Amino acid sequence: MTAPLRRRPDRRYGMRMPALLDRHGRPLRNLRLSVTDRCNLRCQYCMPDDGYRWLPRGDVLSFEEIARLAAVFAALGVDELRLTGGEPLLRQDLPVLAGMLARVPGVRELAMTTNGVLLRESAGALRQAGLHRVTVSLDTLDADTFRRLSRRDDLARVLDGIAAARAAGFAGLKLDTVVIDGVNDHELPALLDYARGIGAELRFIEYMDVGGATRWSMDRVVSRARMLELLQARFGPIRALRRTDSAPAERFELGDGTVFGIIASVTQPFCATCDRSRLTADGMWFRCLYAEQGTDLRALLRGGAGDAELAGTIAELWHARDDRGAERRAHDPHRRPLLPQSQLRANPHLEMHKRGG
Ligand code: SAM
Ligand code: SF4
Ligand code: SF4
User: Fold this and answer.
1) CA distance 84 to 35
2) Residue 346 Cα, ligand 2 centroid: separation in angstroms?
3) Strand-pair partners of 81
4) Cα→Cα distances 354→34, 90, 98, 195, Å
5) Which atom of ligand 1 is nearest to the CA of 352?
6) How far is the CA of 65 from the centre of ligand 3 (A)?
7) What is the CATH number of the domain that holds 186?
8) How high is the mean pLDDT in each 10-residue block of the chain (357 residues)?
9) pTM (2 d.p.)
10) 111: domain range?
11) With a 6 A CB cut-off, is 288 part of the ligand 1 pocket?
């Protein structure tokens, strides 16, 4: 049975846009497409271990399959797609896929989150293909810290990639920084200065206990409150800006007008307005970053399901969505990493680098 499409006011579109709502009234708007589970970095908050199991090549969705699923999601109300990974730029011919997705009717925004290592080589082609926005993960400006955090020596390439994205003309360039106590928390002002200098908006992210974060502990989390203290000590009073959408980042403004964001997934979870879901490179659809169960859309697709059947399944599952993973964990006083390594090894779909963050 297909779940009903209920109408509700939508601030971005007035009253006209029908929205598919879950059990908490949250619309399906935002889809993260992981295009590969491989990565050229080994960030300690995401892939701190060795011996990961990769998806068999034959299981990975083709560009045509991704574009078809994207079109089905778009017909159900998704208007924002984000390419992610693993490292999305490791997927061969990514600009071809970007071009296909940019043409999907209803897609208002096509973005990508990347570690930036390979961005210099492909920024121009991606922009030409129709990619609208780029977010680069940048945790440090110090080469030694970069090496310790990612187990690779690629800071210079990331900075070149950021420069190439600017040169290619991407508007609204964003930088994402996962902040870890004792690792890069002393760099917050320098990172903000850097972002301001290149006209990018920086978002500081609390270290989450999700997926492969097997080294996570609460005392390594730098809370939003602490981040604001650290920034205030250097830049003076900081003003909170009013929220205008369901984006996870809360935005703040320095006295000189510099705007930055904080994504406080651990201390201030934003599940109440979460409109995003994730499709892995092999077509598993997860309706929460913390969900242990996904739905195998590849099996449906390759089993011959038509668009109407796919749409019906997606609508029904979204309608039943009850997930509030981060919020539920926020009440656990003995919070530890979400999953032990043994469970991640047994089911690699639980990894953050499979789901796309
Ligand atoms: N490889 C690309 C990159 O790093 O930008 C895209 C995939 S990565 C999984 C997407 C985002 O997830 C990155 O910004 C990364 O910093 C974030 N992330 C991964 N593990 C995290 C964790 N434990 N806590 C908070 N953010 C995390
Ligand atoms: Fe780091 Fe992104 Fe790779 Fe994870 S997927 S290890 S966050 S670069
Ligand atoms: Fe959305 Fe799940 Fe993250 Fe909450 S924990 S914001 S429901 S993805």
Assistant:
1) 6
2) 20
3) 31, 110
4) 7, 14, 19, 28
5) 9
6) 26
7) 3.20.20.70
8) 43 53 97 97 94 93 98 97 97 98 97 98 98 98 98 98 97 96 98 98 95 89 98 97 85 97 95 96 96 96 98 98 91 79 81 81
9) 0.94
10) 5-355
11) no
